[in-house]
Specification:
five-stranded antiparallel β-sheet, 19 strands, alpha+beta, six-stranded mixed β-sheet, Serine Threonine Protein Phosphatase 5, Tetratricopeptide repeat, Rossmann fold
């Protein structure tokens, strides 16, 4: 009797045991379908031994962290290799809470397929490489399954390894890839069109269609992760799916997802319960709870975060650093990053972030130490070389600073910050001509002039008082920024700093120009006035028109200032200001003239008929200003076709994409509404099939076909007036689709 009880107890324990979890990510590959297919075969092979979450689910498993005003997913801090790396596999395992995670990539080389797999487990990450000829993806898959079985400590399964992407399986894999990318509707279309789908394809289609209907489906994990990509995202629906996922899985991450989603709908009871469960289950859950508590100002967040920083896991340390950064806990962030850099010495991000913190703390030594590692890990990063050059300058290692800056420019000739650094290192070492080549390159790339580059030269005046070239370089940057008086002062100091100066004559000539009265601004004679930015000639104008003057601003014989302000003012014959707009214009470096035709003014819809004037005023520093006046006439009332054209609103025909109206309609404005109503009538059969019944507003209860068949000229007018009231501009869309959406939204009216 006792033996039977022991046997029964063992049986019960075996039944209640939870299978280990295995997450398989789509494999990165130039051939996307191949990467998804091998991952799918790999995941399917082990579904008898493990709780497997394959490439349909894996891309959406990592829960984000809650921060003030939004969410941050820790995977965005991965290096360019993304999840397909040793660090990526480790991060995925730590944040998802799985027992095993497989990521990887497939490369093509010399007619061979090379699969590099990263398998993360409790003991760390192992990297495996298998090869096969390009025409043998089945062999590649079989090898991947065999080596994974060995690493998981199970017998090699008898599994399907065929990868025929030209047949129905290729379409099934395409659907998986589309789902992973968030394209659910497109995936459904592919699955519906499958010829003779197998059971896996049928089940996937069932789940996609269940999601669209809000039904439970067959696979909770699929429904939960796919729900995050719904076009009309519904937090409550997604929470219900993740709740089912959590109940059916031993993974702790669904509970974090419930907490995150609940926080966005302020369901505090559900959020607290979910995060508390996750915090007990694994350390990432504790850090996630810390992120929520700190974002909401709740007690316990600091203690949770401190516990997270004490972790030894890569994913947890990264998450703790992210939360600490989001809450300005810089000392905790540094501690987490320093531990992370020791745990993952080949991971670049912690070194990058530590360098930025060091710069903020004026610790050039710490910045340089971090960046030396960063450039070793990513020697092609112009950013790291640029920043390393700056840290060396701060430390006084001017030769090293110049070398690092040169390397940055070699990597990216558009790296103007490195050019500024290069100019600085050269000018303080007495090589003004070389420095000016770098500064001129920087100014060519950065016409706005970097403010920090000016501050650096201002500081160099004190650090290197014997270097006359600093005055000249600073004068050039001042002048480029439009600070004429300060530029002249620095040119003069340059000239009084020594003899035989290389740019003495140039400095003298610039002083004469800068000390003289600034050149006046002028506007070209007889500026033109057009309807809309496309330059339609459509006088006389009507109330509601959007008018755009076209004119040139120039200075006689001199460059234009760095920027100037343009004011358009509408006045009546009594000189009363009716409307005014203001815009700042940035001027390309070296320009002596600039044509402007994209600054417009809207005539008020209630504007009375009569004579008006548009004043164009251009103003710049040092009291420079000029004005030109365009007289014009307003007659009649607002015309919808003019308002649409002048705002660059193009509505197209369904199917053909042909514009429904244009400049020719200006002579026949009354035809617009009839034309649009006709377009609705023609599209009524398609609307009857495609549109749901309308649930609210003036068309409540209408089907799509009835809506299009019974809409009147007045209805279309209301739609257009509502569209214009929303300040719609510069858009192109299909008229019937926009009209249908307006009706589905309750046909809101203009105020």
């Amino acid at each position: 009797m006792r033996a039977k009880l022991i046997t029964l107890l063992i049986t019960l324990l075996s039944c209640s045991a939870v299978a280990d979890t295995l997450v398989v990510y789509p494999l990165n590959s130039q051939d996307t379908l191949l990467g998804v297919a091998v991952a799918d075969r790999l995941a399917t092979a082990f579904q008898e031994e493990f709780e497997v979450l394959g490439p349909v689910v894996a891309p959406s498993l990592v829960p984000p962290l809650v921060v003030d005003g939004g969410f941050i997913n820790p995977t965005v801090f991965l290096d360019s290799s993304n999840i397909a790396s040793s660090i990526g596999a480790t991060l995925a395992r730590d944040t998802v809470g799985a027992d095993y995670v497989v990521t990887g990539r497939i490369d093509f080389e010399a007619e061979q397929l090379i699969l590099t797999m990263f398998l993360a487990s409790e003991s760390g990450v192992t990297t495996h490489t298998v090869r096969a000829f390009e025409n043998q993806p089945d062999l590649l898959t079989a090898k991947a399954i065999a080596i994974t079985a060995h690493r998981l400590g199970v017998e090699r399964p008898e599994a399907e390894t065929t990868v025929n992407l030209a047949g129905p399986y290729g379409d099934f894999v395409r659907a998986i890839g589309l789902i992973g990318g968030g394209f659910l509707e497109e995936a459904e279309q592919v699955l519906v069109q499958l010829q003779e789908p197998d059971e896996a394809a049928k089940q996937l289609l069932t789940d996609v269609q269940a999601l669209f209907a809000g039904d439970p489906g067959t696979r909770p994990a699929r429904l939960a992760t796919m729900s995050l990509s719904l076009q009309d995202f519904d937090e409550s629906l997604s929470i219900s799916y993740f709740d089912a996922f959590a109940q059916s899985s031993s993974l702790p991450s669904p509970h974090v997802w419930i907490g995150v989603l609940g926080s966005s709908v302020n369901d505090k009871a559900a959020v607290t319960q979910a995060f508390d469960f996750a915090a007990e289950a694994y350390l990432y859950g504790l850090i996630s709870r810390a992120s929520y508590r700190l974002a909401e100002g709740l007690e316990g967040g600091q203690q949770d975060l401190i516990a997270g920083v004490a972790s030894e896991s890569v994913g947890d340390l990264l998450a703790a650093a992210v939360v600490a950064n989001a809450t300005a806990e810089i000392s905790l962030e540094k501690e987490a990053l320093q531990q992370l850099s020791r745990r993952a010495p080949s991971y670049t991000y912690p070194f990058e972030r530590l360098s930025f913190i060091a710069f903020d703390e004026d610790d050039a030594q710490a910045a340089a130490e971090a960046l030396v590692v960063a450039v070793d890990l990513e020697p092609e990063s112009d950013l790291y070389w640029t920043n390393l050059g700056w840290s060396y300058y701060l430390l006084g290692f001017l030769g090293r600073s110049e070398e690092a800056s040169i390397r940055a420019v070699e990597l990216d000739p558009n790296q103007f910050i490195a050019q500024y650094n290069l100019g600085l290192a050269r000018v303080v070492t007495g090589r003004l001509e070389e420095a000016m080549r770098a500064y001129n390159d920087a100014l060519r790339l950065d016409p706005d002039v970097d403010d920090e580059a000016i501050k650096d030269l201002e500081n160099a005046l004190d650090l290197y008082p014997d270097q006359a070239g600093v005055h000249f370089s600073l004068a050039v940057l001042y002048e480029a920024e439009g600070r004429r008086g300060e530029a002249a002062d620095q040119y003069e100091r340059y000239l009084t700093s020594g003899v035989g100066l290389p740019f003495g004559e140039l400095a003298n000539s610039r002083i004469a120009v800068l000390r003289a009265p600034p050149p006046p601004l002028e506007i070209s004679q007889a500026p033109n006035l057009f309807l809309g930015v496309d330059g339609l000639e459509a006088e006389p104008y009507h109330p509601g028109d959007f008018l755009f003057p076209s004119f040139e601003v120039f200075t006689p014989g001199e460059e234009l200032p760095k920027e100037f302000e343009v004011t358009l003012t509408l006045r009546d014959v009594q000189d009363t200001v009716i409307e005014s707009v203001f815009e700042t214009v940035d001027v390309p470096r070296g320009a002596i003239g600039l044509v402007l035709d994209e600054i417009g003014l809207e005539l008020p819809p209630e504007l009375a008929q009569g004579e008006y004037q548009l004043f164009i005023t251009v103003s710049a520093t040092e009291g420079r200003s000029t004005t030109s006046i365009i007289p014009f006439e307003v007659e009649g009332g607002p015309q919808l076709v003019r308002q649409l054209l002048s705002r660059s609103i193009e509505m197209q025909a369904l199917g053909t994409g042909i514009p429904l109206y244009g400049e020719d309609n200006l002579d026949r404005p009354a035809l617009l509404l009839d034309l649009l109503v006709s377009e609705l009538r023609e599209a009524a059969p398609q609307a009857e099939e495609a549109l749901p019944d309308i649930e609210t507003g003036r068309f409540e209860g209408f089907s799509g076909g009835r809506l299009f068949n019974e809409s009147t000229v007045e209805d279309v007018r209301d739609f257009l007036e509502y569209l214009l009231e929303q300040n719609t501009r510069d858009v192109t869309f299909t008229f019937v689709e926009a009209y249908a959406q307006w009706a589905l939204d309750g046909a809101p009216e203009s105020e």
